[in-house]
């Protein structure tokens, strides 16, 4: 399998009816996608199957779920299992997003359980890590993030790290109230995370190391000047397909294959 040159994906968070999801997927299905960019979209659970059905089977766009439980089945009201997510069309499972950590009791331990369960199900864990603003202000972000990564991968063996996507998402940069990060702020962290992940995988590294948090068409190119950043994980700016496609074009232009 040849890996793409750069990744661009979006989590829709708690947005989109089935009609809106259908329209988004149809736009993607009809668009000319840059071949060097691996696109992925994480719809809400309700829209997974719809998006899967709207995209042609041959579409290179990967689909993922924003959450799934580690248990294979059972009395877990409100949850879906890895197998159910896959059945609905997901090949990626997001975990550890700061919104889930702060609002829905996601912990380092549940992220570790989910990473293990996703790999056991043959799915790609997309593990989000990110420090709060006060940790960044104290200059302790690398220690904080290293602890999150260590914990998330505590049930993953070194040969499996290659199957995992890690997204660095500083909490202070996410959402309407976020302050977009500059490449001067992201690059040292990405380098530290890449080094940590390389150590944990006998030098192989993760499948991809992404940056996310207020990514938009204005800063996408700059963020990708950092060679350690394998791609961008986008929220609001890609909630319309035109936004995702614009950032994908910018990413393709920023990363021309050798
Ligand atoms: P944002 O969201 O781009 O809207 O800041 C990013 C994220 O939470 O992944």
Radius of gyration: 17 Å
- Indicate the CATH class: Alpha Beta
Q: Which fold name is given in CATH as the topology?
A: TIM Barrel
Number of domains: 1
What order do the helices and strands follow?
EHEHEHEHHEHHEHEHEH
Question: How are the strands ordered across the major sheet?
Answer: 1-2-3-4-5-6-7-8
What characteristic shape results from the CA principal axes? globular
DSSP helical segment count: 10
- Quaternary structure: single chain
- For the record, give the distance between the C-alpha atoms at the N and C termini, rounded to a whole number: 18 Å
CATH architecture: Alpha-Beta Barrel
Number of strands: 8
The chain-level structural class is alpha/beta
Major sheet: 8 strands, parallel, barrel
């Amino acid at each position: 399998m040849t890996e793409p040159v750069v990744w661009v994906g979006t989590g829709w968070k708690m947005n989109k009816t089935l009609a809106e999801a259908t329209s988004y997927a149809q736009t993607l299905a009809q668009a000319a996608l840059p071949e060097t960019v691996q696109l992925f979209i994480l719809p809400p659970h309700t829209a997974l199957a719809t998006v899967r059905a709207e995209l042609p089977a041959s579409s290179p766009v990967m689909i993922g779920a924003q959450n799934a439980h580690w248990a294979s089945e059972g009395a877990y009201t409100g949850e879906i299992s890895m197998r159910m997510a896959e059945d609905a069309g997901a090949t990626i499972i997001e975990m550890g997003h700061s919104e889930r950590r702060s609002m829905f009791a996601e912990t380092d331990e549940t992220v570790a359980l989910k990473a293990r369960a996703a790999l056991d199900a043959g799915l790609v864990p997309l593990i989000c890590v990110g420090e709060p603003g006060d940790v960044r202000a104290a200059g302790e972000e690398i220690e904080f993030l290293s602890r999150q990564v260590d914990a998330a991968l505590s049930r993953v063996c070194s040969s499996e790290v290659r199957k995992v996507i890690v997204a660095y998402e500083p909490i202070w940069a996410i959402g309407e109230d976020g302050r977009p990060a500059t490449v001067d702020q992201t690059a040292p962290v990405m380098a530290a995370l890449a080094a940590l992940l390389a150590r944990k995988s006998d030098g192989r590294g993760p499948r991809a190391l992404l940056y996310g948090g207020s990514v938009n068409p204005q800063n996408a190119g700059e963020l990708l000047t950092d060679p350690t950043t394998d791609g961008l994980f986008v929220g609001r700016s890609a909630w319309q397909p035109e936004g995702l496609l614009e950032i994908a074009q910018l990413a393709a232009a920023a990363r021309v294959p050798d």
